[in-house]
Amino acid sequence: MLTRRLLLAAPLAALPLTAAAEPRFGAFIASVRAEAARAGVSEAVLDEAFEGVQPSAKVLELDKHQPEFTMTWAQYKAHVLSQTRFEEGRAVYAREASLLGRITATYPADPHIVTAIWGLESAFGAHTGNFRVVEALATLGFGGRHPSYFRGELVNALRILQSGDIRTHAMLGSWAGAMGQPQFMPSSYLHYAVDADGDGKRDIWTNRADVFGSVANYLAKSGWRQGEPWGQQVQVPQNFTAGLGGRDATKSLGEWQQLGVRRADGRPFSRADVRGAIVMPDGVGGEAFMIYPNFKVIRRYNASDYYALAVGLLGNAVA
Question: How far is the C-alpha of 231 from the C-alpha of 219, rounded, in Å?
Answer without folding.
Answer: 16
